[in-house]
Amino acid sequence: MSVGSVFLVGAGPGNASLVTLRGVECLACADLVVYDRLVPARVLTFAPASAEKVCVTDLAGSHPERGPLVLERMIAAARQGRCVVRLKGGDPLVFGRGGEEAEALHHEGIPFEIVPGVTAALGAAAYAGIPLTDRRCASAVALVTGHEDPAKPDSALDWEALARFPGTLVFYMGIGRLEKIAQSLLDHGKPPETPAALVQWATLGRQRTIEAPLGDLARAGRAAGVIAPALTIVGPVVAFREQVSWFEKLPLFGRRVLVTRPAQQSADLVRKLEELGAIVHALPAVRVGEPADWGPVDAALARLGDYQWLVFTSVNGVHAFVRRLRTTELDLRALGHIRLAAIGPATADALRTYYLKPDLVPQEYRSESLVAALAERVAGQRVLLARADRGRELLREELARIASVDQVAVYSQEDVPAADGAVLDLLRNGEMDYIILTSSNIARSLARLLAPEAHAAIRDGRVRVVSISPVTSAAVRELGWPVAAEARVYTMEGVLEVLVDLARRER
Domains in the chain, start-ordered, CATH in brackets? Predict the structure, then answer.
């Protein structure tokens, strides 16, 4: 068996969108991913679902003891011919021990590649609005470990040189020793009025930036309760933050938003919310799967020639229908004579991914509008509705008055039996700002998951509901929950628009 390869990949400073294209390419080929604790969960979605994923904190022993275990796991997998990705926070070679791991792989004869990542200093500075260099006052940057005790007699750091350094100092992993770091710089001549900042949870919606003169930085950090992960930035460039800061001004910055869509449908929404500065939590309230019985679907596929219209009411329906079509002896040519209707633009876009152009999309994206748009076109014809195994029957019932209608369930929606306890705690304590609900089924399924305290937090408005449509809003109100905002256009873009409006009003 040929030996596999190991990729030492930098995952970036925390925001999943900051992983490099090469890093994504490596993850796409991975059989095994060994990742650091602070690597964001969304980065792991770039790896195949079949890939084995191991967090280093799940390995036995204390932190120093895990290093050899990580290497053993990677080397063993590579010798089995597997593609291994060692996913490290920030950059593998900047305080990440990537050099040590690469050296060990070299000695074992394991091929490897080092994929650089956005190191924490670059991410924290950019997202806090602090230019690390500026031709007016900083022509150099020093990246310094703060994990070393500056008071120990055999310190490898030259504090006198650091105090005189003509640029910006960035200390990694030094929050626990912040007072000693600051005092060492002051003792060696750094002016106490030097601008400084602490950046906690850099590049994420929970980011906090604490500014203070160097002489007061430790006290300010204690008062703010800053703990790891955080970086310390020292230098005159910190003073530019007022003009350069952008991330903390985003409309949803710091707001906790719960996404309840099925896991395979939520990635794009999560990404867009993070781009708006939100702290996103995922709690899929329903699961999408195969229907209990493919028989009715297969029977409809066998007589596609009998239908004049094929109607889709969801993205899931499009993908499930085409996947099933591919399992038969048919292909997309079997749809050549059929006119296609989609309930909204997302469903229409799903059709276009298969080079299928929808013939009809209503102006308002709900069943009532789809019925009205189809009514004058399908009278006396045969119509096939491809949809979920549960949901509103309005479309079938209304079209059946004027046309011959067959309805088949091409996918199932199942209630999720359990959910993330940490997310449920946030809801129970009223610490979630917004819940996005995109269907009546999701609203009812979520309600079944929640404890009475969470229901109370939603009823009294501490947790606000944002709904995609009047139909979903009606289901929400039936649960006894108020609707804080309803999309004016019944799409995810419409949901985001009213969510941003709501957040701005509440600032």
Answer: 6-117 (3.40.1010.10), 121-248 (3.30.950.10), 256-285+417-506 (3.40.50.10090), 289-415 (3.40.50.10090)
